[in-house]
């Protein structure tokens, strides 16, 4: 048992869940090689952080699990202990794990995880069986987006309006699922920016991966893309004509349409 930051205690579970090795190309080069090792565009440090972080978030290591020690991670991943040490520090800063001498590192309770951290949010979105996550994103949107659209209708500049309109057009002309989902994400982030509230700007940057995950799911599941496009065009038009209440209602109609797909039994 260890005492948590809120004064409660957590029972730690000693498990022997072996770390899953990185791919052979990500293993260390022989002693004397220069420069960081790139792993699919990442440094070795970033790759190790992602490997461990993703496994924590998707439940391979449940809260309270004592993680493999530094030497075990090092041997399994084929990286130096210093890389593992820095990865542990990074994951600690994200509130996924905590450490103590003579105990080691363990997974923190889920409520401590920093879900507004871009990496954590990306791992959370990529975890299998993410219907609950999609509902969480949708609830978040319902809290933020109707009022953001109303503010955008009042405050948007001509340049911001062109960005919103361009993203809406790109949604309508996209030839692939990924291109449409990306344009959909740009559309909603552009509205957050046009709302003119400084707190919404970093928020949008943090949740873009969550929105992309949601819109990819919706685009794949939707059987009437034209209807979804029409709902987006209603929002674009209301903001362009600077009609805040109409924009607010238009977003709520879009959110209701999205709810239908998420709540279908086949959403998992």
Notable characteristics:
single chain; 268 residues; mainly alpha; Arc Repressor Mutant, subunit A; Four Helix Bundle (Hemerythrin (Met), subunit A); 2 domains; two-stranded antiparallel ribbon; 10 helices; 60% helix; elongated
* Widest sheet, order of strands: 1-2
Round the mean pLDDT to the nearest integer and report it: 83
- What is the CATH first-level class name of the largest domain? Mainly Alpha
CATH topology of the largest domain: Four Helix Bundle (Hemerythrin (Met), subunit A)
pLDDT under 50 segments (min length 5)? 16-38
Spatial gap, N to C terminus: 35 Å
Structure classification: mainly alpha
| Tally of helical segments | 10
Radius of gyration: 22 Å
Give the total of beta strands. Answer: 6
Order of helices and strands: EEEHEHHEEHHHHHHH
What is the count of distinct domains? Answer: 2
> What is the helical fraction, as a range of percent?
55-70%
**Overall 3D shape:** elongated
Strand residue content: 5-15%
CATH homologous superfamily identity of the largest domain: GntR ligand-binding domain-like
Give the biggest sheet. Answer: 2 strands, antiparallel
CATH architecture name of the largest domain: Up-down Bundle
């Amino acid at each position: 048992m260890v005492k948590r930051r809120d004064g409660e205690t957590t029972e730690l579970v000693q498990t022997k869940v072996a770390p899953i090795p990185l791919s052979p190309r990500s293993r260390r080069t022989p002693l004397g090689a220069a420069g960081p090792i790139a792993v699919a565009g990442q440094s070795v440090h970033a790759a190790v952080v992602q490997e461990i972080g993703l496994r924590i978030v998707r439940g391979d290591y449940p809260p309270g699990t004592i993680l493999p020690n530094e030497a075990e991670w090092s041997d399994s991943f084929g990286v130096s202990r210093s890389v593992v040490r820095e990865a542990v520090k990074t994951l600690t800063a994200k509130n996924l794990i905590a450490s103590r001498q003579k105990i080691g590192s363990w997974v923190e309770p889920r409520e401590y995880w920093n879900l507004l951290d871009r990496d954590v949010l990306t791992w959370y979105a990529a975890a299998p069986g993410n219907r609950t996550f999609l509902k969480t994103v949708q609830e978040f949107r319902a809290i933020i987006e109707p009022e953001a659209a109303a503010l955008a209708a009042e405050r948007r500049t001509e340049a911001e309006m062109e960005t919103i309109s361009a993203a809406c057009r790109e949604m309508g002309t996209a030839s692939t699922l990924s291109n449409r989902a990306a344009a959909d994400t740009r559309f909603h982030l552009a509205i957050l920016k046009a709302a003119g509230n400084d707190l919404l700007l970093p928020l949008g940057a943090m949740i873009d991966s969550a929105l992309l995950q949601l819109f990819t799911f919706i685009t794949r599941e939707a059987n009437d893309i034209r209807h979804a496009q029409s709902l987006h065009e209603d929002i674009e038009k209301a903001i362009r004509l600077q009609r805040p209440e109409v924009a607010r209602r238009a977003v709520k109609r879009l959110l209701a349409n999205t709810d239908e797909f998420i709540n279908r039994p086949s959403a998992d």
